[in-house]
Amino acid sequence: KRSAREMAGSLALALASVSIALRRSPLQPVRPAAAAPLAHRLSTVVCATSGGKRRTSSAPGGITQKARERARARRVSTASHPAVGAAAARGASAAPAGSASAGPTRLADLPDFRGPGRLLKAARKAAATAPPSAVKGNVRKRAAKDAARKLEAFTSALSVPVKEQQRAFRAHLRALPPFEAALADLTLDSLVRRGGLPLSAVLQRHDEMRRAVVRTGKEAIAVAANASSAAEASAALEEGLAEVESVFEAEAEGLMLLIETAQTLRRLPRVETDAPVAVLVGMPNVGKSSIVSATSSGTPEVNDYPFTTRGLKLGHVGQHGAPDRYQLMDTPGVLHRPEDERNAMEGLTLAAVQLLPSAVVFVMDLSGTCGEQSAPRLQLMVREQIRAAFPRRPWLDVRSKADLPLAEGLAAEDVPPGTLDVSVHEGRNVAELAAHMAQMVSRVPGRKPGPPS
């Protein structure tokens, strides 16, 4: 008995040693942290809010999961619109450096899915070219197997690409850079507010179409495979093909919803998400557009987004290909109100500051001529809000329309120290402003140098 116990103890010790060695083995694969799905909103044409479950693994270096979550919460705490927070969270959960990843995608590169007509054409060809059965001698069995094979090829040619469409669509959205993810969310959110369907409903209808085709195809295959004669097998083939095609056409709206979703997102204007950008921030009607026009090279491009009645004006400063070239962005106005009441237009502004390699140019018109909504005191309060939200961003205060006096009741001491007075009308300090912006973007964290000129 003592010998048996000693042998058992030795065996247990040996097994424990092997287990430890395996866990420490350099051949053990490393499982990277899984990226969290992006919460998107799709309308009738596209989508509405749908949050995926976040899956995470322990961080390297002994960092606990709770610590990771706390750090992520701090990074996104400045988000003033749900889309900005969702996009920032997506960026925070990206796979760590060195892990297997296909890298970020772009909205403009969303797959161009095949429509119902193209899929039906491919399915008919697949059925016509299905390899014949190898059964010899028995005419009934051979006819039944041939019919079943053609039906299977027809059904697969319709259902498999549809399944891959949804898989590719989801994967593409998950891999978007944070700013483009915010653009998608803001756009789709506004379409939902116009009476659209949520993402879950759009994707569910798309999948229900596929399931209906598969279910009908399986039933037709079973009928053909059990045919009692060659003639019955041939009739079952024709009826089965017609029935599967009829179901596919009846449910094709689910396919078109996803196709139109991809088209809508693909048409969104493109911003260079890895190039530095000077973001002009301020309340409405304070002169941001005039500054972009006066300081950027060429005619600034006005990008229209479905969620805003005003465009996003994007210009470039510097020669194309020059290492000091940067983007200059005029954003929708930010109003004085609580953070949780901001709309999609304000969300775009905050997304640009938070999710792009940006420097902030806060523009104020303190002359009192830009309307009650943008009164000078309100502008100064909005400045404090934005400055507190982004304390580490390179920052420059600009007083536009400096050819006009300060509003009544406003003293020079009320103007933030270091504010640059600019008058586009008189040309005052326009060149100095351009020089300040170039200096600021050179200090933007994460800036990628341009190609040599």
From TrEMBL:
Start-end of Low complexity biased regions: 79-104
SUPFAM superfamilies reported in the protein's UniProt record: P-loop containing nucleoside triphosphate hydrolases (SSF52540)
Annotated region described as Disordered, given as residue ranges: 50-114
Family matches, as Pfam families: MMR_HSR1, NOG1_N
This protein's UniProt keywords: Signal
Domain NOG1 N-terminal helical residue range list: 123-271
Signal sequence, renumbered to the chain: 1-21
Gene Ontology molecular function: GTP binding
InterPro entries: GTP-bd (IPR006073), NOG1_N (IPR041623), P-loop_NTPase (IPR027417)
G domain span: 279-371
Protein name: OBG-type G domain-containing protein
Species of provenance: Emiliania huxleyi (Coccolithophore)
